[in-house]
């Protein structure tokens, strides 16, 4: 979209990968850049957010698949749903390792 190509669902798939990254990390991507700098880095330099080393590989794979630099290589949302459904047991079994930081609340100690 930034390159003035026709808008397709593949733009939304890329955005979904970013939202998934935000859920996992609890951070905003490209915090040290302006929106214009981030867009330039993504489009012209292939910059993507850094995936935490302790991220579940299945989630890492989904994000990187969604971020493919060639929109034609990105999955459809139907494929993303199938990947998430296939990974559901692994994600739920390893939720602490999955590190959905936005969903983890500190426990009260007394």
Automatic annotation (TrEMBL):
<dbReference type="InterPro" id="IPR050167">
    <property type="entry name" value="Ser_Thr_protein_kinase"/>
</dbReference>
<dbReference type="GO" id="GO:0005737">
    <property type="term" value="C:cytoplasm"/>
</dbReference>
<dbReference type="Pfam" id="PF07714">
    <property type="entry name" value="PK_Tyr_Ser-Thr"/>
</dbReference>
<dbReference type="InterPro" id="IPR011009">
    <property type="entry name" value="Kinase-like_dom_sf"/>
</dbReference>
<dbReference type="InterPro" id="IPR001245">
    <property type="entry name" value="Ser-Thr/Tyr_kinase_cat_dom"/>
</dbReference>
<feature type="domain" description="Protein kinase">
    <location>
        <begin position="1"/>
        <end position="92"/>
    </location>
</feature>
<dbReference type="GO" id="GO:0004672">
    <property type="term" value="F:protein kinase activity"/>
</dbReference>
<protein>
    <recommendedName>
        <fullName>Protein kinase domain-containing protein</fullName>
    </recommendedName>
</protein>
<dbReference type="GO" id="GO:0007165">
    <property type="term" value="P:signal transduction"/>
</dbReference>
<dbReference type="GO" id="GO:0005524">
    <property type="term" value="F:ATP binding"/>
</dbReference>
<dbReference type="InterPro" id="IPR000719">
    <property type="entry name" value="Prot_kinase_dom"/>
</dbReference>
């Amino acid at each position: 979209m930034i390159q003035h190509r026709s808008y397709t669902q593949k733009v939304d798939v890329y955005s979904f990968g970013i939202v998934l990254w935000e859920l996992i990390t609890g951070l905003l991507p490209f915090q040290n850049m302006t929106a214009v700098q981030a867009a330039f880095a993504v489009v012209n330099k292939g910059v993507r957010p850094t995936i935490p080393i302790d991220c579940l590989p299945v989630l890492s794979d989904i994000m990187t698949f969604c971020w493919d630099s060639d929109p034609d290589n990105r999955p459809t949302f139907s494929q993303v749903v199938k990947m998430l459904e296939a990974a559901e047991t692994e994600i739920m079994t390893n939720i602490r390792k999955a590190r959905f930081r936005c969903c983890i609340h500190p426990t009260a100690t007394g």
